[in-house]
Design a protein that fits this description.
Elements: E1 2-7, H1 17-31, E2 35-41, E3 53-54, H2 59-62, H3 73-83, H4 85-92, E4 101-105, H5 110-119, E5 126-130, H6 135-147, H7 149-169, E6 172-175, H8 178-185, E7 193-194, H9 206-216, E8 221-225, H10 230-240, E9 252-256, H11 259-264, H12 275-278, E10 279-283, H13 287-296, E11 299-302, H14 312-320, E12 323-326, E13 343-345, H15 349-361, H16 369-374, H17 380-383, H18 385-393
Parallel strand pairs: 1-2, 1-4, 2-3, 4-5, 5-6, 6-7, 8-9, 8-11, 9-10, 11-12, 12-13
GO molecular function: transferase activity
Organism: Sphingobium indicum (strain DSM 16413 / CCM 7287 / MTCC 6362 / UT26 / NBRC 101211 / UT26S)
Protein name: Putative glycosyltransferase
């Protein structure tokens, strides 16, 4: 089948979790024999150009449909490109095939997909929806934290309507957690399918470790991998805001991903006692460096305190096989591993930091063959198997 995956980010060089998820969806669908294209609209000017993507339209254009634009760029893009003929045509004309399936990753491009199906595909394409969160709850939490209750309520209602429209308008919805599945099921008689976040099977070589050592200097360190998604910074300061005395003097906190820059330049950074002594901002790292960091980390920290869905960085940590200190929210969708070797779940700053202190005092973890095998369920080919199979069955439907 010909499948077009619509999103608000290109996946040629995936960096954040959403990009990695969609990249693996596309790769596994291609491996199953389908002809798959990733297309859409870039929701940020920092994304590199991509063949089937319209570049970021700019804040001036988006503000015509979203008076409160901050944190609502993705919703505004969906609105603009589904209702404005000029913008609709700009994307429609670069979609390279007449698809059998239009796959909407997150709800933002659903209204465009619906209009494109009616106008270009004459209603013959099957629409499916890949949910990553209960988005309106996530938007409400972020907007309330940054802008107050009034704006947060407005954001929540707009996004909730967008989500429900997608759920009701597709032949199949895929969800990342049981909680998301239950909420989605209340709006459709088509049973949603669980398709959690996962991880690739990374194997580090000496070159990868040497690259990682440029940041760690061979010291014992805790690793936090996180994009610039606002909850990633908020959770970091919630857990470490009272100080980092849990880190031994010669150890380091290495932050890899877009969150590192934002944490470093946040006014709260200088208020955290001792942070400047241990903090290493690795920034956006290459795949080689990431492999090296995951292979050499003494522990991985997941201070996620806001948001829904599941965190693919949690799957990444579980597969890495080192000490993990995580919140309950970080382990959402991976609860079966909450008591696995080396994993500690803590939800308040004191307990979280105490677990980090304890982890540094313990030797590195070595998983047995059986323990490693028990974690294979977090690999992408395992967690997305039902998604790939279900989409394949649409051909015969």
């Amino acid at each position: 089948m010909k499948i077009v995956c619509l999103s608000t980010y290109p996946i040629d060089e995936p960096r954040h979790g959403g990009q990695h998820r969609l990249r693996n969806v596309v790769d596994l669908l291609e491996r199953a024999g389908h002809e798959v294209y990733s297309a859409g609209v870039s929701s940020s000017p920092v994304y590199p150009a991509s063949r089937y993507f319209v570049k970021f339209p700019g804040n001036q254009a988006l503000s015509t449909v979203a008076p409160h634009l901050s944190l609502m760029e993705d919703w505004a893009i969906g609105r603009l490109f589904s209702t404005n003929d000029v913008y609709f045509d700009a994307l429609a004309k670069i979609i390279p095939v007449k698809p059998d399936v239009l796959f909407c990753e997150q709800p933002w491009m659903f209204a465009f997909a619906q209009r494109y199906n009616n106008r270009v595909c004459k209603g013959q394409a099957r629409l499916v929806y890949g949910s990553q969160n209960i988005e309106h709850q996530l938007k409400y939490g972020m907007a309330a934290y940054h802008f107050g209750e009034k704006i947060a309520r407005d954001c929540r209602e707009k996004v909730r309507d967008c989500e429900i429209e997608a759920i009701k308008g597709v032949v199949q919805t895929f969800c990342v957690s049981d909680g998301d599945l239950a909420w989605t099921a209340s709006y459709t008689d088509r049973h949603p399918i669980l398709a959690p976040n996962g991880v690739i099977d990374r194997v580090a070589g000496m070159t990868d470790i040497e690259q990682a050592n440029r940041f760690t200097e061979g010291r014992k360190f805790a690793l936090y991998c996180a994009s610039a998604h606002p909850p990633n910074m908020d959770g970091f300061f919630e857990m470490f805001g009272y100080g980092v005395g849990c880190f031994p003097p010669d150890s380091r906190m290495v932050v890899a991903g877009g969150a590192g820059h934002h944490i470093l330049h946040d006014p709260k950074y200088s208020q955290v006692g001792g942070m400047h002594k241990i903090y290493v901002n690795a920034g956006e790292v290459s795949e080689s460096v990431l492999r090296g960091l995951l292979a050499t980390a003494h522990q991985i920290v997941l201070p996620i305190t806001h948001g829904g869905g599941t965190n693919l960085k949690s799957a990444e940590a579980i597969w890495a096989g080192c000490h993990i200190v995580a919140t309950t929210k970080a382990m959402r969708g991976f609860e079966e591993f909450s008591h696995a070797k080396g994993i500690t779940v803590a939800d308040d700053p004191a307990s979280f930091c105490a677990a980090i202190r304890d982890g540094f005092l313990r030797p590195k973890i070595t998983l047995t063959r059986d323990e490693r095998e028990a974690r294979r369920g977090v690999l992408w080919e395992e967690v997305l198997a039902d998604l790939v199979r279900n989409i394949g069955e649409l051909e015969a439907a």
